[in-house]
Write the structure tokens for this entry.
Amino acid sequence: MDKKTPLYDKHVELGATIQSFAGYLMPIKYGAIKKEHMAVRESVGAFDLTHMGEFRVTGPDSAAFLDKLLTNDAAVADGKAYYSTMCYPDGGIVDDLIVYKITDEEYLMVVNAANLDKDWAWVQSHLQGFNIKVVNESDEIALVAIQGPKAEDLCSKLTDADLSVIGYYEHISGKFAGVDALIARTGYTGEDGFEIYMKYPDAEAVWDGVMEAGEEFGIIPVGLGARDTLRLEVGYPLYGNDIDHSTTPIEAKLGWVVKLKTDKKFISREVLEQQKADKPGRYLVGMVVTGKGFPRHGTPLFSGDRKVGIITSGSLAPALGQAVCLGYVERGFQKRGSELEAEIRGKRIPLKIVKIPFYTEGSRK
Amino acid sequence: MSNIPENVRYTETHEWVRKEGDKYIIGLTDHAQHEMGEIVMAELPEVGAEATKGDSMGGLEAVKTAEDFYSPLDGEVAEINEELEANPSLINEDPFAAGWLFAVKTSDDSQFDALLTPEEYKTHIGE
């Protein structure tokens, strides 16, 4: 039985196309994906992301525990957040996540909904030896994201806090739309924006407050469809598409979240260190389609007759008006500017490897 | 609720079929275009190509998804909607008229008669 977020009735009222996603009935789109996408690029959009999972880690060994489990470094200042991968001993990725540091003894991990059960089991199996408590608050915490160049103007109307001093990947706790919330300058769109975490019963007040305050900016609700095109247009990987147990952060060009420069002994360290030194056999690259066609997850990539890779994500990039993709290619074929071909329905479609992000005009601070 | 015109027949794979002179015009149903969302490319068959009932005749690309479409009849592709090359969103805007996909010539009219009626299609999509 799929779960409903506390905003489910709102989505139905708004005429959303609802689909089951990671065990939740989620809005995929309210109207046209392109329109929702462009609202976020040009002004502001609101997302219900309550399906995301939240684990709260508390206790004196919180940082030590996270440093064992996660590839990125927990030594950040209070009020900062960091993006990380969580890896298996073989270097494959369990999940990618954001961690909000509240104090030395309290962190909030935000994980992908589709990985919630697996992540929870993974966390539970590594508790031994750490003086901490981890609580799964996924069914208690709702998440509303406000994304787009007008996000700060909008959110400033709903809180007394001075949002202009909160930097990218920083957060505060305070009142938002009259309720207690964690207000974070994070997102998955390439635009400036905030993610507001609150208790389930407060979600409606936040959603209604945001929609009302956003009226003057032309806010519209945005579904998971445009969330995917927005993230792809700026080249952010999606777990289950671009990264999974069979890929490592080094292959996925996420080496910047693997703290090899520290001496921390996180799970998978030796394997990833070795892979970095040896260079991986394949790399995740961004490609634009120069011919006519839309390569999708699983489409094979060729250089001449040789199969050299596979597409992991592909769609129209609405702000660019062309098809873009992410995919893995064999080492030696990953050079920017190189041309490859995708095979779709027996036809070859030319592509060119380009720099990520595809879209570079984002308002992200 | 989807628009399900009474004057055409339907397939389980969401094509509609209308007899026009000696040809059958084929398109995508309103229900299917709505499910797919904004169609950004239509890959159509070649005129003169063989059409076999149930075989893929081409593909439609929406922003996030792709779907093949199928021939509801045996015959030969008589015509394709060339307007879709420049303006694939016609399939969304006017699925039963300007957004038609291709036309088939067939010698066997009984296949048309066996297609789903509007009532049967309505049941098929659960409306």
Summary: The interface with chain A takes residues 35, 37-38, 40-41, 43, 56, 59, 61, 63-64, 66 of chain B (CB under 8 Å). Chain B is about 20% helix and 35% strand.
